[in-house]
Fold:
Amino acid sequence: MRVTLPKNLLAERIALLERVIPSRSSNPLLTYLGLAAEKDALVLFGSNGEVDLEVRLPAQLEGEGRYLIPSQPFFQLVRSLPGETVELSLGSELALASGRFTTRLALAPMEGYPELLFPDLEGGEGAFTQRAQFLAEELQRALSQVRYAASNEEYRAIFRGVQLEFSDRGFRAVASDGYRLALFDLERPQPFTRKAVVPARSVDELVRVLRSAEGEVVLALGPGTLGLAVRQEEGALRMAVRLMEGEFPDYERVIPKEFPLKAALDVEPFREALKRVSVLADKQNHRVDLFLEEGRVLLSAEGDYGKGQEEIFVSLEGAPMSLAYNARYLLEALAPLSGRAELGFSGPTSPTLVRPLEEGGYQAVVVPLRV
Amino acid sequence: MRVTLPKNLLAERIALLERVIPSRSSNPLLTYLGLAAEKDALVLFGSNGEVDLEVRLPAQLEGEGRYLIPSQPFFQLVRSLPGETVELSLGSELALASGRFTTRLALAPMEGYPELLFPDLEGGEGAFTQRAQFLAEELQRALSQVRYAASNEEYRAIFRGVQLEFSDRGFRAVASDGYRLALFDLERPQPFTRKAVVPARSVDELVRVLRSAEGEVVLALGPGTLGLAVRQEEGALRMAVRLMEGEFPDYERVIPKEFPLKAALDVEPFREALKRVSVLADKQNHRVDLFLEEGRVLLSAEGDYGKGQEEIFVSLEGAPMSLAYNARYLLEALAPLSGRAELGFSGPTSPTLVRPLEEGGYQAVVVPLRV
Structure:
């Protein structure tokens, strides 16, 4: 098999594979990069056992085959090759030539390499029986805005994932660590009903792929697997990630519905004041106090270094209230927002709802600290 | 004592202090930032026991005093303060106000804080009896270009420093780890004769300060101490670093003087080819082979992954030669260079000299690998 393709295209498109393919693995074959010829495309593939990825690039091809090449020297070399094109000849070894540089790399046998299954962009049967279409940018926003709320703890493993909910009411991504929760609703009725939990680290890879994509993408579910297929400017990209077992406990009941006090505020100055005041907060619980009254929030904190406070003007609706938060949780809940936001306070010891004041699918729940 | 000054000036100028002041120390007072009022300047100072630093800023001042404030919250706050100016009131505590933000920080007592001594920019007596003037940019170049060759090993501790040599022939900075050597000569006759070894990590801080400076600077030596005084656009900066004991063994004898083969080459393409070929090199010794003959260098390497080679055109003067190098050492020796360079080969097992083809104070010596 012989392949000729532009160096820059190859260098640019292997970046996502470079992230996924591990430099060490209990299955050493996973440290290799797969190369195959299919129709007019060079197919590059890799896996870390949790995330499988396949990149298709237009290339001049002769012959066919499927080969495993050592990914580490290949990734290191591709970016700095001296020529404008790269020539790859694959047989008993890989011969690479670009400009006056040549190299010969040893191959690994394909036996023992896992079979990677991906959904088709165009439809068609296969392992992925449930399919839904999204706009890349919309799906990317839904996933990336809730991901922070997933847990890092071993305890209650299901919370280390992001739950995706498909139903005829729409699509929802939701994450929680038991102390706070974030969800994002897309009003896009789904052709099937299912809940699937994706490990948060795999969500990060899905988000990266979606950022590189444009227009419509396909999300597809098979047994124990979520697949994604996206078109790119030149070529296409497909991904499959292992699902976690189980689904989230009922979280709807922690989302407050009634608010004795609501605040509408500009996110940016509120966030900045919260950051400043939290510098003085106790290093253990990061406690910042909020006192809301007469069109103002007084933020204050006190710790080993001393104390600090700042006042911000807001629009209030309801009775004055004093609350305390872990500043980090409140800052993370505000992070996806810009412009104006609404904070709905259900009480000093019951959950607070954070959401954009105008339309937007994002909602976050933060539980105040017990004073 | 009360101080008012522009937030941005303060935020910008504490960056170097932020690097020096440790977040933990066996003497907890060193984690504090010093503030003092002198004439029309706010003086900020700090030390990590190895490097002392003092920054002088124009400010509106009332009263006087010397105070230690907790550096960690202060550094965190200063950049994000909401106002254009900062007001500091120092007494039994520090009260800081900027815009609608206020904070009160606990102070530490000055007792037990080391006395910091710095050379004067203008001359005058004191602990620093030997003084020399440099251009900031020249001195910065001399120090930063040789620093890489210093050792990281505990063994032969003196090689963990950079030796500064002052004499009527000029100024030299030299570093070596016993396997390679770099030196930089400034043709600037010095008013005194002395050799002083500065720890490589302190050289990094000197270089940072010199990068922030313009025009003439003063380097001064006292007992066991090297001082630096620089002017900045607004204000001034002074530094003192502890010297290492002892001086380098005689290194002049390892610098080759006769070359059966010399190569003149463009640094950039040679460096790029060396990087590419070294990707294939053995991971232990990073060996890259050079074969020089008839206006060409053939670079080649072979390791676990396979082998690679590339050819580069050069001007040669002398008999063909085959040599092998640790690619990292050769790349580091070339790093300070651009444009055209000369490689002087004294033999396949004896030192190679690397230097710019045109004028320049830099010279590096790299010992080939034994083939």
User: Anything to note?
Assistant: Chain A is about 15% helix and 45% strand. The radius of gyration of chain A is 25 Å. Helices of chain A lie at 7-13, 15-20, 71-78, 136-146, 200-211, 267-278, 327-334.
